Amino acid sequence: MDEAALHRRLDAIERRQYLVLALLVLPYLVGGLSLLVGAVEARTLVAAGIGTVVLVFLVFLYAGYRARQPSRR
To answer: Which has the closest alpha carbon to 26: 46, 60, 49?
Structure first.
């Protein structure tokens, strides 16, 4: 495998890792909030769900933008 192909694969892996991290952070924040408060209201969960959807959408947009940029290496 040549170096350019390897860099493309590594960039794709990096984008997937950012997506997974973005999907994992918000549930942990809500879980931490529930431990601190004792109970989470339904509107908090709805807000967290909407925030998650928006965050995932933004991550996909950013990943698509980065994928179309020429490599700087």
So the answer is: 49
